[in-house]
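Fold this sequence, please.
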Amino acid sequence: MPSSPYLTAMRPAYGTGTLADVMPTALAALGIPTRGVNLREAELDGVQRIAVLLLDGFGYHLLGQAAQASATLGAMHHGEIGTLTPITATVPSSTPISLASLACGLPPGEHGIIGFTVRVPDTGDLVTHIRWEGAPDPETWQPEPTCFEQATADGVACTIVSNGTFRDTGLTRAIYRGADWLPAIAPHEVAEGTLSALARGDRSLVYAYLPDVDTAGHFHGIGSPEWLEAVSEVAEAIDGILTGLPRDAALLVTADHGMVNVTDRLHVDRRPDLTQAVEAVAGDGRMRYLYAVPGAIEEVRQAWAEAVGGRAEVIYKDDAIDRGWFGPKVRETSRERIGDLVVVCRDTFAIVGVEGEPPHVARLIGHHGGLTASEMAVPLWSYRNG
């Protein structure tokens, strides 16, 4: 049994409230017909300007601890300001998948960015969506219209407020098409940039991103002094936006995933038997994709099931799809990108030491990508000025 209720499995809430519904909610408030569920219809009626602030790694079940670091977060957590509800990340619960679902308003099965790292079917090469250097072509790999393209076509001024080094990456080309870019790194810069971008045009949509909580959780662990300091800093960005929020504007705060502190690891680089008959190991530490040599899927499944025991579940690709993990609709091109086998880690277990990954990844404390409530539940907090 899991040691915490937050380590129990949680299904993605497609159709009732996932990250894929956040931007459609914003578009609907701005008068733009869109796909997805409207999560704040009454509250946002008549709003002309919306800022969506994404705090990387800031899971819903972390709010109790985060409240120690900020009076504003404490007020949010206790329902004293704005409206707070839990929604879910999409699957896997990792940054590129979640950001694509948010920016495109679609589950992973439709936008196709369906793993932290996946194998390109045509070439057999691995693409890491965060770094994404070279092939495949981002516009072809993710061909669906983004929410920013839809909003821009309707006359809304769209702006991304984030680190300028991300501006020309493959992931940006795949999911942020249709928006202008305003470089900002520090939380106070992000707050200032958000307010500046909100003032553009008659209607505006701003997406702002802060990675600090996620970074601190990875390297120092949830609840560490470094993590609390990062929480305090990003909370200052929220305070800064609220202080200058225009009368006709609203702020939505959410996250791409939560996190667990890992205490048990399987090092693949120490188990050569696990890579026999395996052409590639992809995904991330909490949800791995295994691409088997043709005809060897069952052999690989048995070897990995024995190695992980009860710490993880090893299932066939079709079973993962049938469980609805990637959404109600999975395009054939998306299906081809998922491993033949999916390894889903339970509790505080992770699979590390995979060829091609930086060595420090195996030493990270905080991980995400799995199906536990700690990873899957994310906040949707909204505040409307006036």
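The two ends are 47 Å apart (CA to CA). The CA atoms of residues 310 and 346 lie 8 Å apart.
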